[in-house]
# Entry
Amino acid sequence: MSKICHWDFVICHSEIMSQDKMDKIISLCKRRGFVFPSSEIYGGFGGVYDFGPLGFELKQNIKNVWLKAMKSQENIVPLDSAILMNPKVWQASGHLTAGFADELVECKSCHKRFKTDEISGNKCPECGGKITKPKKFNIMMKTFVGPVEDEAAVTYLRGETCQGIYVNYLNILNLMRLKIPFGVIQIGKAFRNEVNPKNFIFRTREFEQMEMEWFCEPKDADKFFDFWKEQRIKWYQDLGIKKENLRAVEIPEGKRAHYAKKQIDIEYHFPFGWKEIEGVHNRGDYDLSNHSKHSGEDLKYLDEESGQKYFPHIIETSVGVERALFAFFCDAYQEIKGGRTKTTKAAKEIEILLKLHKSLAPIKVAVLPLVRNKPELVKKAKEVYQLLRPYFTCQYDELGSIGRRYRRQDETATAFCLTIDFESLEKDDLTIRERDTMKQERVKIKDITKTLKEKLEA
Ligand code: ATP
# Structure
């Protein structure tokens, strides 16, 4: 049995989120330009998604806050290694053998394939037919380099970004003149030929990982494992994920990734259940010792003070950008029956509010003239928009009533709406409306950049 660590979390069993909520989130993602099926005009492409203008901004913000958090730690350096690598890397890492394989069964009647951990009993969950014995299926994505498609030309799209870090370990250590302990971070694409991509962007065949590999003395590995586990949980909480929707599960021996001596999965309570969003692993000396053996390079670390040589142990934190995005999205999604505005009659039965943390909000500021048929208002609003564009991700919107425009911005998590009204023409000011409280205040246009910067950093 996996051990669920409670710490200070309250695990919420009461709220069983429905398929209905999932459908609404998927619909909002499409409708408002966050996520599109890949190659949609050709009917899509299984397990692959594109991120539209708002999805791009949200992903970018997630990567930025992750980088900022990582770089705030001492002794961390970044890397951008290639997706394509010498196939020997994947031999050494264990990814071409059983380690990186899913166990599959096939239904003898409808021929659908399932991962063994997705079915209980020995019947097909779809049609009730008999199923075959489990078979291993490697999920590395094969490709060819060069003009001849033979065995010698085979390589793989990387299945995880961290291998690029391990094979560059000596370069980084020596050229950056680092001493243990230190960390290397990398954000980049990873590919897995998932047998059963599902749950929207939760399990896809192409995704981005944000990985941190911490190289340390073997005797310090447990201490740093706990340190990083806590840092990563705090990161989600600081970004507003509700405590009751987050938990950490210690994975027992036999169920861990093939390289892990110790493993904690940070899980989020998605509409379809508790699922991993991030893994924290103690990889021991698995990677460096294997790469040493296979490459013939001595990847041991020389401790100049003690004169001792050893393979550093590695603590890894690994999260998928899209999975994190999905968790932030689900957590932020709110429906308000009858709407939030009490002063005027709500235009809709249900209002959607996407309460993303300000640092994640794809659009920080929307600029809205009160009405669009008054050229003076439009002119001033466009001036404000141009003034702010160099500093914030902004949107100019003049279509529809002001209430409707506020709701449209709330739906996509825009942090602040600025309204230019008739008073603005006289006083050279505007109204700033805060998304979560709907509180409004008047601010002079000359002070608006500073005010917004302060509010976004608060
Ligand atoms: P799972 O058990 O869900 O397949 P995993 O344990 O294989 O995940 P890791 O190899 O530890 O995952 O990868 C680290 C992180 O990369 C995961 O926590 C997840 O956020 C992300 N990730 C892994 N596989 C996928 C995928 N197919 N689609 C999207 N994100 C993924």
In short: The radius of gyration is 25 Å. The chain is about 30% helix and 30% strand. The pocket of adenosine-5'-triphosphate is lined by residues 160, 192, 194, 203-204, 207, 209, 257, 276-279, 318-320, 322-323 (CB under 6 Å). Residues 1-16 have pLDDT under 50 and may be disordered.
